[in-house]
Amino acid sequence: MRSIGFIALALFGMTNLSYPTESKPLPYKPVQEETQAIAALEKLGGIIRLVSLEDKALDVDLTGATDTLTDEHLQYLLVIKNIQVLRLKETQVTDAGLVHIGKITSLKRLFLEKTRVTDAGLVHLLPLKELSYLNLYGTSITDQASETLLKFPRLQTLILTETQVSSKGIQQLQKGKTDLEILPNLELRKAQAEAAWKAAQKAVADAKADYEKIQAEVEKVAPEIKQIQEEVNKTSAEFSEMTKKNEAAKKELARLTMELTQAKEALERVQKESSKNPQDALLKSQFEEKKNQYDSLQKATTTARKNSDMLEAATNAAKKNSDQAKQKLDKLKNSKKLTDAKLTWETNLKLEETTRKIWEELNK
User: Domain 4-189 classified CATH 3.40.800.20?
Assistant: First the structure.
C-alpha cells in the first residue's frame, strides 16, 4: 500500500523525494514494498512523477541516473504499480535491462534514447501490449529490428532518428503498419529533399543566367576595353617613368643639401679665422672662394628642390591618371561582378549536386 506522504505529494502533480546521489553505482538490493523501490530509484538520481491522479499512473524518469543506474536496478520497477512512462535516455541500460522492462505490462511510453540496446533486445519488450510510444533515437538499432517492431499492437509513434535503420527499413515498417508515425518521416524527407533539389536547380539556372548576362555585356564593350587598356598601359608607363625621375631628383636634392651643409660649415670656419687675422690676404682669398662655392650650391639646391617638387606633382598626376584608367577598365570589364557571378554559379552547382544525391539516396 502506498504511503500517505507519497499520495500527498502526488496531489501537487509529482513526487520528487530527492536523495543525494552517490559517485559510484549502488548495489541492487531486493525490496518488497513499493515505497522502498521508489526511494531506491530516487537515491540513484531518478524522479517519480504522477501522470494521472485519477488512476495514479506514474512517470519514472531515470535520466538523472546516467552514471549510477545498472540493468539490475531496473528490477525496482517491477515492485512499483501502474508505471505508464519510463525515461532512460543516455543511461547504461542494455538488452539485459530490457528483460525487466518487458515485465512492466502497464507501460505506454518508453524512452531509450542513446542507450546500448540492440535489435535482439527489443524482443524482450513484446509483452508490452499497451506500448504506444517508443523512442530509439541514437541507438544501434538496424533494419533487422523491423520484424519485431511490427509486432507491437498499439504502437503509434516510433523514433528512429540517428539509428542504423535505412530508408528501406523505414519503408518496410510503414508498409507493414500504415498507421504508425515514424520519425524520421521518410515521405516528408523525400518531399523536402525534392523541394531542396528543385530550389538548387533554379538557383543554378539563375546564377548561370546572371553570369552569362555580365559576360555578354563585357564582350559588347570589348573594343572600348581594348582602347582603355592601351590608355592604362600608357599612363602606367608614364607613371613608372615619372617615379624614376622623381626618385633621381630626390637623390640629387639630398646630395646637394649635404654638400651645401658642408660648404656652410667650411665658410663659417674660414670666416672665423679671417676675423681673427683681418690683414691676412690668404685667409681673405679663401673666404671669398668658400663664399662663392656656398652661393653656387645654394642656388643649385634651390633649383633641385623646385625640380623635385615639380616631379613629385607630375608623379602624383601620372598616378591619378593611371588609377582612373584602371578603374574605368575594371568598370567596363565588370571584373569583380563577373568573378562574383561565377563563384555564385559554381557554389550553386555544388549545392545542386549535394541535394540531388540526397534525393537519389532517399528514393532508392
Answer: no
